[in-house]
What does this fold into?
Amino acid sequence: MPAPTRVFLSGCSMMILLIGSLAACVQTAPPELLEAVESLDRDLVAIQGAEFAPTEYARFVQDWAALKGRMLAEEDVIRWPWEPNPLAAHLQKVQEEGEQAMAVATQRKEEDRRDAEARLTLLDRRLRIFNSRVDEMESRVVLGQRPIETELLVRQAHSFLDQGLFARSLQATEQASTLIVAQTALLTTELKRYADERLVGTWRQMARRTIAWSRTNQATAILVNKADRRLTIYRNGRPVVSYQVRLGYNGIMEKRYQGDGATPEGQYRVVKKRDRGQTQFYRALLLDYPNAEDRRRFHKARRAGAIPAGAFIGGQIEIHGEDGLPMSQTLGCLMLDNRQMDKLFEKVEVGAPVTIIGALKVSNPVALALADLEQFEEG
It folds into this structure.
C-alpha cells in the first residue's frame, strides 16, 4: 500500500478512536444507583416520609429534584474518562439522604404506632370498666347518646390504627377519652346522692318506720331498695322473702315527672290489687303515687325550673309481673317475674305499706361504682 494511503487510513483510524473516546466521555448517572434512589423515593412516599421525617424528607426531595434537573442539563457534557463523575457523586449523596430519611421515618412511625396502640389499649380497658359500672348502676339512660358517640370514636380509632393513620387514631382516642370524663362527671352529679350520708340516713329511718309498722300491726309490709334492686317482704317486723326487682328504664334516678322513666322514692300504700285481665301486665299492685310529698316536690321543682314547663306529675306506678314486657320499663314501675308476682299478690293486701328508698348504706352498689369510676379517672 503506498505511503500516502497508509497515512490517510491511519488518520481516519485516529479520528474514529477519538470520536469513540469522546462518546464514552459523555458521563451519565450509574443506572444501578439511579434505580436505588428512585426506589427510595417510592418507599418514602409509601411510608409517609413527609409526615414522620419532614426535615430529612424535604432535604432528600430538594436534592433529588436538583439532581434530576442537573442530569437533564448535562446530557451532552463531555469529560475525559480520568475525570471524576459529579453526577455519580451527587447521586450517592442523594441516596444517603434518602436512606437517612427512611431510617428516621421508619423509627418515628414505629414509635407513633406503639404510642397510638398503647393509648388505644388503655382506652379499651377504660371503656370496659366504664360500661361495666354503668351497667351495674343501670344508669345508661342518664347519659343519652354519649355512650354511642364514644363507641363510634373508639371504632374509628381502631380503624385508623389499622390503616397506619396514627395521628388520626390518637385524635379519636383523645376525643373518646374526653367523652368518658364528661360522662363520669355527669353520673357523679346525678347519682352522688347515693353516697350522701345524710340522705342515706333518711332512707334508713324510712325503712325502720316501715319495719316497725309491720311489727306493731302484725302485718305485711314491703321495702324496695333501688341501689340493691331488691324487694323484701316483711311480716310481723321480720323479713320473709326477698326478690330481685327491675326498676323503670331510668329507675335509678329520683322520679320528677311523668315519662322520665324514673322509679319514685317515698312511703306509699297499695291502693288496688289488679288481677289478670285487669291490667296490661300479668298481675299488679297499684300504689298511691303521687302522694302529698310527691306533689310538694314536683311543684317545688317546677318553680325552680328543674323540670320541663309542660310536664305532669304522672301516676299509675305499680308493682307488676312480666306480661306486656315491652311496656314494663317505661313508666318507672317495679317488675317481678310472674312466679314471684303470684307469691307477692297472695301475701299483700290493700293498704299494705310500700316504702321505696335509694339505699340502706353508703357503701351501696351505686356509690361504689361511682367511686370506682372516679378513682380510675384520677389514676
User: Anything to note?
Assistant: Residues 5-24 have pLDDT under 50 and may be disordered.
